[in-house]
């Protein structure tokens, strides 16, 4: 649904060049919720703004719903008619909502329809229908200043849906909201994704967002996508930074001559009593440092961090045994990998 | 001088001021608003970024603003004659008043429009809106409270300028005060005129403030509504009038 190939964006200011995007290939399938996560400055904001060409990519192409937007854009800095028409079919929601303060909620939702040239009667019918969809039917005549943050974002979402888009871009839509409101907005996005078959591309710095609604995710660092795939695949990828950040299991080794192993269960392997088998087969004592079961991207996943006596070299055989059981095994280095962590701004 | 003597003089002068300031304000707003918006649009990072156009307009505005009004009036005589067919009287004064007011207002508009959150512009761009749509539906409506305050300031400045219209026979309250107070030493009429001007300016300021606040507070959570505050000092206008005069 959304494909970018070799997308680069270089900002030039006072002779200095800053590469925000460095060859990004992104592929978002129709009907999925795709999350791009990364620290601030990783280029995710540039990426999402390049998708509807609010930001002109320096090179590379952007295709949305089979339409090559970079070809529509032309050369000048201004958006031509074709590009504007394409944009009207791509919804966008913003971190700071960007609602017009001088318009009522209903008039804000009607704005995209005014741009599309919809008649007055049809506009208000559609706006009220969308407000109903986002649960704000009673606030149609209110002004944005009278609404809470979560309500404002609901208006933002209703507005983004006014042009019947197939794609919704979400630029840190929940980053200015408290955790509870974040959950309700994410729930709304999820519902819209299911009910309307809406493809959602969202960028965020909060792992919880990816965890709760994304089907696929990509990790961005320094303008590049370093990992991407469906959440299920990522969890099954040994050493995946995203997977361990999505589903962290804590616990430090108790001494130098210990080996720490992360065991990930999914599907059938979760029902096997592997740990006691391991203990009996090799006659070793196993400490469990941490364990959790969670639902990530709609999948039940279990993860356990265990500690085996002896160095890694002494434990090659038991680890091989675990691998044979169809479990995903990650041997944890003494130095912890740097997880994607960034406090809410 | 008795009140019955003053009254007809004040009425005539008041009408002249009203005509001069009314028309020139209208022309100033009509001319200055697009100019100010254009300054923002063509400015750095603007939607129609164009350094050459921006510099040219900016310079024209600067020259217009640096010209003392009384000199502007003389310098524009040829143009005034071409437009109105005469260089004397209230009608003739409207032309230099408007031309003096346009750059003044344009700068105020520029500042007001620049204050509009760029995120709103971006949101409308993302909806597929073109530049004209953004000007019409975002920049002007969102800047409206400031624009109204700017208009108030401009109208008051124009009342100040209009005192000099007497030089070209334009009449008006300022001219009345000058003639009777300075040339005939009838200071009583001068003070009455000044009082009338003070009341008129206060009323304009009050109306402008009220309108701006009514728009600005629209929808605010606990907006008590515009507060009534008479006689609010409007420093920028006063300073400007002083400088230009």
TrEMBL record, chain A:
SUPFAM superfamilies attached to this UniProt entry: ACT-like, P-loop containing nucleoside triphosphate hydrolases
One cellular component (GO) term of this entry: plasma membrane
Keyword Ubl conjugation found: no
UniProt keyword list: Amino-acid transport, ATP-binding, Cell membrane, Membrane, Nucleotide-binding, Translocase, Transport
Any Pfam family: ABC_tran
ATP-binding is among the record's keywords: yes
GO BP, sorted A to Z: amino acid transport
Domain ABC transporter intervals: 2-247
MF-aspect GO terms: ATP binding; ATP hydrolysis activity
Gene3D superfamilies xref list: 3.30.70.260, P-loop containing nucleotide triphosphate hydrolases
Subunit composition and interactions: Homodimer. Forms a membrane-associated complex with FtsX.
Family that this chain belongs to: Belongs to the ABC transporter superfamily.
Job description of the protein: Part of the ABC transporter FtsEX involved in cellular division. Has ATPase activity.
Protein name in UniProt: D-methionine transport system ATP-binding protein
Species classification: Bacteria, Bacillati, Actinomycetota, Actinomycetes, Kitasatosporales
Automatic annotation (TrEMBL), chain B:
Domain ABC transmembrane type-1: 14-212
Keyword Membrane tagged: yes
A GO cellular-component term linked to this record: plasma membrane
GO biological process: D-methionine transmembrane transport
Its membrane topology: Multi-pass membrane protein
Record has Membrane as a keyword: yes
Membrane-spanning ranges: 20-42, 63-82, 88-106, 146-169, 189-212
Keywords linked to the UniProt accession: Cell membrane, Membrane, Transmembrane, Transmembrane helix, Transport
Family assignment from sequence similarity: Belongs to the binding-protein-dependent transport system permease family. CysTW subfamily.
Name of this chain's protein: D-methionine transport system permease protein
């Amino acid at each position: 649904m959304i494909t970018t190939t070799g997308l680069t964006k270089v900002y030039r200011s006072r002779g200095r060049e800053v590469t925000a995007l460095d060859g990004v290939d992104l592929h978002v399938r129709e009907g999925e919720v795709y999350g791009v996560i990364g620290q601030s400055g990783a280029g995710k904001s540039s990426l999402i703004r390049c998708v509807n060409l609010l930001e002109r990519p320096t090179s590379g192409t952007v295709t949305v719903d089979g339409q090559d937007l970079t070809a529509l854009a032309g050369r000048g800095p201004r958006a031509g008619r074709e590009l504007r028409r394409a944009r009207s079919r791509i919804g966008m929601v913003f971190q700071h909502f960007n609602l017009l303060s001088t318009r009522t909620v209903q008039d804000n939702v009607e704005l995209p329809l005014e741009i599309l040239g919809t008649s007055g009667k049809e506009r208000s019918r559609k706006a009220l229908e969308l407000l109903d969809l986002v649960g704000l039917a009673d606030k149609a005549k209110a002004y944005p200043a009278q609404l809470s943050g979560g309500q404002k974002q609901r208006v933002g979402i209703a507005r983004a849906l006014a042009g019947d888009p197939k794609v919704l871009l979400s630029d840190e839509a929940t980053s200015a909201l408290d955790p509870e409101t974040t959950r309700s907005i994410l729930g709304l996005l999820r519902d819209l994704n299911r009910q309307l078959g809406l493809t959602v591309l969202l960028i965020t710095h909060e792992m919880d967002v990816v965890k709760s609604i994304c089907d696929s995710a990509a990790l961005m660092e320094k303008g590049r996508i370093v990992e991407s795939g469906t959440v299920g695949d990522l969890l099954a990828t040994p050493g995946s930074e995203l997977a361990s950040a999505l589903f962290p299991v804590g616990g430090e080794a108790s001494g130098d001559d210990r080996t720490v192993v992360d065991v990930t269960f999914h599907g059938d392997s979760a029902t096997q009593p592997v740990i006691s088998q391991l203990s009996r087969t090799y006659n070793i004592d196993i400490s469990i440092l941490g364990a959790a079961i969670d639902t990530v991207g709609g999948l039940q996943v279990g993860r356990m961090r265990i500690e085996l006596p002896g160095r890694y070299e002494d434990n090659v055989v038991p680890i091989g045994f675990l691998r044979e059981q169809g479990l995903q095994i990650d041997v944890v280095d003494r130095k912890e990998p740097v997880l994607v962590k960034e406090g809410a701004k | 001088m008795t009140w019955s003597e003053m009254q007809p003089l004040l009425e005539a002068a008041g009408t002249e001021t009203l005509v001069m300031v009314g028309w020139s304000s209208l022309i100033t707003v009509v001319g200055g608003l697009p100019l100010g918006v254009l300054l923002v649009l063509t400015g750095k990072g603007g939607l129609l970024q164009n350094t050459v156009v921006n510099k040219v307009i900016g310079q024209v505005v600067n020259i217009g603003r640096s010209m003392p009004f009384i000199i502007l009036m003389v310098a524009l005589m040829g143009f005034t004659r071409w437009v109105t067919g005469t260089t004397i009287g209230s009608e003739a004064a409207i032309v230099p008043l408007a031309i003096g007011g346009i750059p003044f207002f344009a700068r105020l508009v520029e500042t007001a429009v620049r204050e509009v959150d760029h995120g709103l512009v971006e949101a409308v761009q993302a909806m597929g809106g073109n530049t004209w749509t953004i000007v019409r539906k975002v920049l002007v409506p969102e800047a409206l409270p400031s624009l109204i305050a700017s208009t108030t300031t401009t109208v008051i400045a124009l009342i100040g300028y209009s005192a000099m219209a007497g030089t070209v026979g334009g009449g008006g309250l300022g001219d009345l005060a000058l003639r009777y107070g300075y040339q005939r030493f009838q200071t009583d009429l001068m003070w009455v005129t000044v009082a009338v001007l003070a009341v008129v300016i206060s009323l304009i300021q009050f109306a402008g403030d009220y309108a701006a606040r009514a728009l600005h507070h629209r929808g605010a959570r606990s907006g008590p509504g515009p507060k009534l505050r008479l006689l609010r000092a409007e420093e920028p206008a006063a300073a400007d009038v002083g400088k230009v005069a």
